[in-house]
Protein 1
Amino acid sequence: MAIEPLAYRMRPKTLDDVIGQQHLIGPHTPLYKMITQGHVPSILLYGEPGIGKTSIAYAIAGSSNLPFFALNATQSGKKDIEDIVVEVRLHGKVLLFLDEIHRFNKLQQDTLLPHVESGGIVLIGATTENPFHDVNPAIRSRCGEIAQLKRLTVEEMCTVLQRALTDRERGLGKYAIDIREEQLTMIATASNGDARKALTLLESVYYASDDVDNTTVISDRAIESLAKRIGVYGDQKGSHFYNLLSALQKSVRGSDIDAAMYYLAHLLESGDLVAVNRRLLVMAYEDVGIANPSVGAHVLAAVQAAERLGMPEARIPLANAVAMMCLNEKSNSAYKAVDAATRAIHEGKTGDIPLHLRDTHYAGATTLGHGGYQYPHDFPIGSFGGWVNQQYLPDELVGTQFYTPTSAGEEKRLAAIYERLQQFKRT
């Protein structure tokens, strides 16, 4: 068998060999038509590992007549770019695949940019990070398309695996292998949309299985055992990690407990317990809010327990916290109110603090006119405690309403009190 890994050997040679990503590179897309007609634009390919960025770059190279060069930004320097520029002088135009393009520093980018702009270098940049966050704007502006790739479906992954099993030249086609369709589905599902993982797992399972009468018989046990080792992608400093945090919060906000548990599990597998705890605590106050004020305290207790326990036990209190927030009433009225007040300040809607609210704990305060504050506790009002009708906002903002209550959970009761106090103000 060849020395190169199966995933490397099975890279598509042309655009027609690409499985998946049909929204980007399918026969009816503008990009496919441009490339097959000889016009290759500079593009940025963005997506998680193993979903086809490198494969598409090599397929584009195989479908064009341009001299092709591949670099990885983590290992390349200014000298490597200068070598490519020499090739530009020899050939007039070259196709450069630059993996991990977001790793390029300013000097490397400055060396590359004029040649991309002049068309001497047709750039295919690949990145696992959001290009709008992590790729220099000058690079982005010179790329005709920024393409976000999708994970392969289980069906597409099975097609990838079937092709590897039948390809006699590059794959496993020349070997007698007994593998059932449901076993292919097991491998495809375990790979979680990552074709590289799927092919690596298939190759590992092949080597780990028994030979019976000159036929390798794939066993479920080998698949299950090796599938546990392929890991979960989750760069703690990368875009995908923050996408997971965002998806968790939006699922909790939308009260979808199943989705929330999925994203919580993925985040915990990624390993950054601190970031997960911080986000859960924020959610308790941002999304549940005063619809149920006790949730904040419960989530804080869960977070503190998780910090003391560490993984894997930390998942237990955190799962409780997520479930509680998912199934509780929701309100964002309180933080929306402070945001509205902040906007007003930034817009210049400010004024002097009323004299009766100013500090009087020093000699001379009355000389400045400070004083006259009425102590609300001295004016009992039913079971509420105390309230007195006096001005609190600056003169310029009297009548401004920042808080808009919602009728959710505990806030329904608070909203009724708020409306009653507003009536008192008007009488």
Note: Residues 154-227 form a domain with the Helicase, Ruva Protein; domain 3 fold (CATH 1.10.8.60).
Protein 2
Amino acid sequence: MENINIMVKNAAKWSVLTEIVVKIISPISNMILARMLSPEVFGVVATVIMITSFTDLFTDAGFQKYIIQRKFKNDSEEDLCINVAFWTNLIISVLLWFSILIFSDQIAFIVGNNGLGNVISLYSSVLILTSFSSIQMAIYRKTLNFRVLSLIKITAKLIPFFVTIPLVLMGFSFWALIIGDIVGELLNVILLTALSKWKPKFKYSFQKLFEMFSFCGWTLMEAVSGWLVTNIGIFIIGLFFNNYYLGIYKASTTTVIQIVSILTASTTYVLFSSLAALQNDPNAFNKMFLNFQKYVGLLSIPLGVGIFVFRDTVTYILLGSNWGEATLLIGLWGLIFSESVIFADFGAMILLAKGKPRYIFVSNLIQILLVVLCLLWSSRHGFTPLVYITCLVRLQLPIMQMFWATRITRINGKTIIRNIAPYIFASLIMGATGLLLIYFKTNFILNLFYIVICITIYFSILFLIPSTRKVIYMFVNKFKDSLIL
């Protein structure tokens, strides 16, 4: 147990450090691109990425999560399963790529971008690249070796400065975003392959493939349903609205995801790998989850409230003055998505670590049904009602994911709420103060000052509570340790 705690600490250190660096780099590149490109351009790219991200689910087929979650009998079995996963990924990705090349024009027509089949054909080449990198990433995550992954991710995030932005300046429009993504994936493959100790071997076993699919089948269905949860809104908006509103929707949700992912990307896979290692020790398993929830909730809960209260400022800083219609969606999506981290995302990691991806699949199916029905209705009434409905429906996922997780772990729901109750209380006081300050007078400079005041109020309240004061001290110490490489 002591050894796993050290490994988790090191993994979290590198993961958090990476997200801090990435969240310095990514917003800068996005702010530049948002001011250089129109919402319509982002709308075009959104549909292209939607298609390739869907097909990419089948190239992985759930093998990455299988490798992380599985307890192998010996090194020989592990190596065989990894090779089976690698070659299966590669074969599926090649077949899917050729299928997209053949039907690219028809696909472009279906998603509302008629005449852009060549764009889809080019971008779908990333399927081959991700099939190479997916298994390598799983090996690093299983061993909680996030150091290499961190360095590679930071390097890849520099691509916009060296590829995308120069191409935009040369007039390549959406082609700049497409080419930038492809170069980033290629760099991922080169670095992962060069630095990894594991190299593909010509080993294969259909028997192992069938054994793996007993887990991977449900994981694939969970992944496909998760893709639909993320992208069904893009598809429906693409049908009923023009590329301008599609760009507004995609840029808004992406902006929020980028802000919140400093917490999700730095913790969810570390949590999954840690829980998978402790899946046969219920007490240690539950303690690990509650600790993660306590530390991440310290930041995620006030973050969501802050994004909602200061949504105008967040939109202006990250997207510029031409994205006024994105303000409402960024505020509401930020509020719900930030709070979902410690419920929906962490709940899903519990279910995957326990080998229960079917529960996530059921939750996602319900979410898809609700989203489709509500978006079809709200799309007739304009973009603003659609925003409200989209955000309201999203509440179903954290509620249901955590319900399944508590049933499996037998953690009492009251325990989970008590674990984060002080953060909720302090965030509500902070949010009410922010709304009051904005009500009397607001401008960009004053809002920045108000944000500092609200942050001060939040942590001041927590310092008055002995239990949360201790958590803050521990959090600060862990953050200092993360800076010591």
Note: The chain has a mean pLDDT of 79.
Protein 3
Amino acid sequence: MRTTIGRRLTGLLTGALLAAGTLFATAAPAQAYDPDPSVSTYYRDTDTCPCSGGTLTDPFDGTYFAHDAGGTAVKMELNDAGWFIGKVEFHPNDEKLWVYDTKNDGDTFYVAVGYSSGGSYHDLGTFSAPGTSETVDLTVKDFDIPDGAYVDITVYDGEGRADLIAAARGTGGAVA
């Protein structure tokens, strides 16, 4: 009788552990990219813009930078094993950050933005695309960055600015 009860108890415990494991496995956060995605970074002097085409072309919506004297625009394309997984753009005209996630893979990346002006560094926060089931997820942030400020764009694989992927620096426009 003890053997039968022991087997039943073992079976119940095993089933409960498997069910709990399944529950935790489905609730776990997405895995980080490993290795990190490769990044191609493009800069445009917006004195000579409007700019589009060439290396600014991509399979989702291309990129267009407007004229803004003294500005340096930035486009960062992220690729993972040949897949275009996203892009980050800084537009000096209107000081906008565009973050695109273009692969529904259960993972995202995080973009920290800050600028240097007047001898101080100003952290504007960390942003990511919303992570829906859409083909392209997009977040656009509109900042108030002083003319001529250096704008730092840093891409991370993990929340909390963990696992650095790449960094770039643009410049806010309208420098006299």
Note: The chain has one helix and nine strands.
